[in-house]
Amino acid sequence: MIIAKQYRCVHSATCHCTKGHLSEEVLFLMVQHLNWNPNVIATLSCVCKWFDDLAKRLLWKEFCRARAPKMMSDLQSSGSHSVDGSWRALGKLLIYCSGSSKGGLFSDVHVPGHFVHRTRFSRTSGRSFLPPQCRNDDILYVSDPCEHLDQGGEDGDLGFFRGIFKSFSMSKVRKLLIRKGTSFHPTEVCPYCKAKLWSMLQARMIPQSASCRLGAYEDSIEYYVCLNGHMLGVCTLLPLSDSEGASEVQ
Q1: pLDDT digits (tens, 9 = 90+) for 3-54
Q2: Which long-range contacts (CB under 8 A, 24 or more apart) does 187-191 make?
Q3: Nearest Cα to Cα of residue 171 among 202, 115, 131
Q4: Is the pTM of this model over 0.90?
Q5: Domain boundaries in the chain?
């Protein structure tokens, strides 16, 4: 069921929500009892701006903490109570594979975006996607590839992956991208927060270790990083027998 989002008010006198609506505390307990169900949070966000603000400020934050507690604790270990790009954007990144539309970020690749039941994000895997000169300072969490079998045509199976930088605004990767004069993608934006995107392929900042970590052909990997530190990419996966024999490159 698709519900149209409403932006009538912040509980003005004409808002229907003021006639006996639940308090923040009750809504918090209700969604907590439902194990921070993202469908419930998204539906509440559509009621009016008051509910939408509550979801962005509190409910999506608790959803992220419940879904990936160790990762969230690390992302906030610098003392910040927020994350780059909003909690809602991060919540979407945790459960949504962006896919690719034909003529979009990944040229002729056409795979519809979809929700995923569960995805593992790893800080150790993220190191393999960082240029060697950034690995001692930057922290990146990257998901296991979301496999799309027989979607790569004659090239083979596709794998979509996504990730999030810790404190991207202070990262060496961002400084390198700026120093290299890397241009933003002219038309596409981040599917999670709508921010502009840098191409790591254009910047020549994709290390060989990324293909080994993914079990993919080295020349098939492409990924982007947005201004808020969200990462999304695609690769062509090696046949299982070949990827099992791939050695890790540091």
Answers
A1: 455 545 555 555 655 555 677 888 899 999 999 999 999 998 887 778 888 8
A2: 188/104, 188/105, 189/226, 190/85, 190/89, 190/224, 190/226, 190/227, 190/228, 190/230, 190/232, 191/96, 191/98, 191/113, 191/232
A3: 131
A4: no
A5: 24-77, 101-237
